[in-house]
Design goal:
Blueprint lengths: L1 E6 L3 H12 L4 E7 L2 H11 L3 E5 L7 H11 L4 E5 L3 H13 L3 E4 L9 H16 L14 H4 L13 E6 L3 H10 L7 E6 L6 H11 L3 E4 L10 E4 L5 E7 L2 E7 L11 H11 L4 E5 L8 H9 L3 E5 L9 H7 L5 E3 L1 H12 L4 H4 L1
Parallel strand pairs: 1-2, 1-3, 3-4, 4-5, 6-7, 6-12, 7-9, 8-9, 12-13, 13-14
Antiparallel strand pairs: 10-11
Helix pairs in contact: 3-4, 4-8, 7-12, 9-10, 10-11
């Protein structure tokens, strides 16, 4: 059984989350706390496996509590966030501090989609219970513009693309990769499992903290070197060739692997439109989305990379890619950016050694 402590200042939300999680045969809600001070005492007494944590609470906000928790007693945390612009920014702060994942806050009208919401939060609690959680240190993170390589990319052609997919733990993993990209790198297309309302905040943060120009992708937008395009929450992102150029195409089609955006949708379109001109990486995430798409890319001649187990928060998606032979390389996160750049220059493994 996965033992969960629910932390929220709203009695209604505490009850809703408790009922949803208790409906699962493998999850037990061992307590419900009304604020961080109450949560602190219950953590000591109950020793839960996973915490669900409200972002905004009285007496002590969720971010302050999370920072203290990850320094003193690191444990898997799933944030419960309001679907607002400020909620998106705060949620990204929480993920940077070590929260495993997040869900949007349910409301009193959640009954119309109760089963879907229950599946989502239960799956994220399960993934969190298996996640690798690290202790937060006080060492400051250097801005991405300092980390990005100043050297020229040295790309042999102008039609190269880089494709990246991720889910659980992916916002920080993507940031790690983008921070190491030089400002003349090939255009980058990204599918991160993220709900509508949060992807814009994520794109804005990547734009502010890397040497690249980062957008929440728009339909028909031209893909340019030195730019990255993040699939909007609630939309699939595809790549389409338009003469000598690539452009973004957005679709609100059916969920694929229970996701929209889906990494498989992006990767398959890149395999069809760009093929061997692509380098692609599948990063940390729960489930299997992206593994078959990465295999399609490899079969089309692209160089493909899966994040390794030790550096992944959850080794679901990249682990499945490794299992089915979709990855040319399985690498730790800190080596993936350089490998993508090497492949984008058209070099082989032997040439880059």
């Amino acid at each position: 059984m996965i033992r969960v402590l629910v932390v929220d200042d709203s009695a209604l939300i505490r009850r809703l989350l408790t009922e949803m999680l208790e409906s699962q045969p493998d999850i037990e809600v061992v307590g419900a706390a009304r604020d961080p001070y109450d949560a602190r005492e219950q953590i000591k007494a109950l020793d839960p496996d996973v915490l669900t944590l409200d972002v905004e609470m009285p007496r002590m906000d969720g971010i302050t509590f999370l920072r203290n928790l990850m320094r003193l007693r690191p444990m898997p945390v799933v944030m419960v966030s309001s679907l607002t612009e400020s909620g998106g920014d705060i949620t990204l702060d929480a993920l940077a501090l070590g929260a495993v994942d997040f869900v949007t806050k349910p409301d009193a009208d959640v009954a119309h989609s109760l089963a879907e919401y229950t599946d989502e939060i239960a799956d994220k609690v399960r993934a969190a219970s298996r996640a690798r959680v690290q202790k937060l240190t006080d060492q400051p993170r250097r801005p991405g513009r300092q980390l990005a390589s100043a050297r020229s990319g040295g790309f042999r052609t102008t039609d190269r693309l880089i494709a990246i997919g991720a889910s659980t733990g992916g916002t920080e993993a993507i940031r790690d990769v983008l921070e190491q990209m030089p400002p003349d790198c090939p255009g980058i297309v990204i599918a991160q499992h993220i709900p509508g309302g949060f992807s814009a905040a994520f794109a804005r943060r990547m734009d502010e903290n890397t040497a690249l120009t980062v957008f929440e992708a728009r339909d028909g937008q031209r893909i340019l070197p030195g730019h990255a395009y993040i699939a909007p929450g609630g939309y699939h992102l595809k790549v389409e060739r338009d003469g000598a150029r690539y452009i973004c195409r957005l679709s609100s089609g059916a969920l694929v692997n229970r996701h929209r955006p889906s990494v498989d949708v992006l990767f398959r379109s890149v395999a069809e439109q760009a093929g061997k001109s692509t380098a692609a990486a599948l990063l940390t995430g729960m489930g299997k989305d992206g593994a078959e798409g990465l295999l399609a890319l490899r079969e089309a001649g692209a160089w493909t990379v899966a994040q390794d187990e030790d550096s992944s928060v959850v080794w679901g998606m990249p682990g499945e890619a490794a299992r089915i032979g979709a990855a040319c390389d399985v690498l730790p996160l800190d080596r993936i950016a350089e490998r993508l750049l090497t492949a984008a220059r058209g070099k082989t493994r032997e040439e880059s050694a």
